[in-house]
Amino acid sequence: MMGTWANGFHFFLYDHHGTGDLTIEDWDASTHLLHAYAAIVNLPQKEIGYFAYQLQRLRAEPPQTTQFIDTVLGVLFDVIEVAAGTVYSIIAVVVGALFNPWDTLWNLIALVPLILATTLEAIYMLVVNAVALFTGGSMLSCQI
User: Fold this and answer.
1) Is there a contact between 36 and 117 (Cβ–Cβ < 8 Å)?
2) Rounded CA gap, 10 and 31, in Å?
3) What pTM was computed for the model?
4) Which end of the chain has fewer CB within 10 Å, C or N?
């Protein structure tokens, strides 16, 4: 589902071997709204899952190298990126509605079920990753 796996916020669209274009001009308001919502609602489960993954590596036999310092810094940068992306998205929703009014209206039909699916997936992954974290990463293999 939207926002479940990819880290970060997408500010640009890239063509293969091409230059990047800002999403603010190309996406409609509904798409910007869904993207921002998915990035915000999935941030906790992604970060908890990454901590659990580092614990799993630490507890492996033999113990593997971990990146706990990088993980802490990554969480900090991800929060900053999502905060900046949220501000960007607020502006982009207005721009998207002005530049792509028909796409915005048409995509409202799909927006509700996609937000519902994104929410359910975020809750599920939050529970799975929290269990994995509290079991020291040993439950990570239970993810579907």
Assistant:
1) no
2) 12
3) 0.85
4) C
